[in-house]
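Re: weekly structure request thread

Next one in the queue (304 aa):
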Amino acid sequence: MTDLPAIVAQIAADMAGEVERGAVADYIPELAKVDPGQFALAVALPSGHVISAGDAATPFSIQSVSKVFTLAIALGRLGDSLWNRVGREPSGLAFNSILQLENEAGIPRNPFVNAGAIVVTDAILAGHAPKVVLAELLAFIRAAAGDEDIHINKAVARSEQATAHRNIALAEFMAAHGNLRNPSALTIGTYVHQCAVEMTTAQLARAGRFLVGAPGCPRLVSPARARRINALMMTCGHYDGSGEFAYRVGLPGKSGVGGGILAIAPGRASIAVWSPGLNAQGNSRLGTLALERLVRATGWSVFG
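Done, posted below.
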């Protein structure tokens, strides 16, 4: 039996000694204030038991990790018709690039790049007020985590709203192609609040169990839908670093510029890691390294 507590503790100790930690996302003023010296790793087993080390009780902004939960909600509401508005292929470009939108008539390449996530948010807004959609998102995440103490950080949301020029441009470009159904201000306002959901690493690990597919895990989506979300996380969850993450870690994963990564070991565990310093692709530098070492020690890669 793998000694998970010892593995998790050793990885956290190793990360504490790392000198090169990456750079925080300073283009969002509130995230620029975050101490890059922090690190946390949490492994949630199907039972809900969490093995953690480091700053696992410190709340942080999950940012684009939220896209996993909004995608689950959108697929539950719209089913496969969602794919008429957003693709399922890797982008190979930065998370906030507009280039493919220009070449592909306003259809984003996948639901995890910013343009795709904006379309997903726009889709679940249909006929609903933003506060209703955000309440539904929080209810979903709280149910997944089994924890009511999960909220939106309003200061982060305001900070993102004030610097959302690129995302507004993406939304307006898609609106010009008929792929945005609500006013862009409404969709972007909802989107930035979605990204400002704040959780601890332990909470995020528990919230990911609905994708693990093992007895004891929350059953919030069908097994077939969980498999498809995991597939998209594997191929698209780290933007233009998705291939590198699959090569190094070998698990479905979704990153956020707050420094969090949610990774799924199907049938085994949900794993969350947080370290605010990012690499050039906008993914947590130490988070990726920690997951690589965890998979090496446990043998949890989906590729054997």
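The beta strands are 40-44, 50-54, 60-61, 151-152, 197-199, 253-255, 260-265, 269-274. The chain has two domains: 4-60+199-218+229-298, 64-197.
Next request, please.
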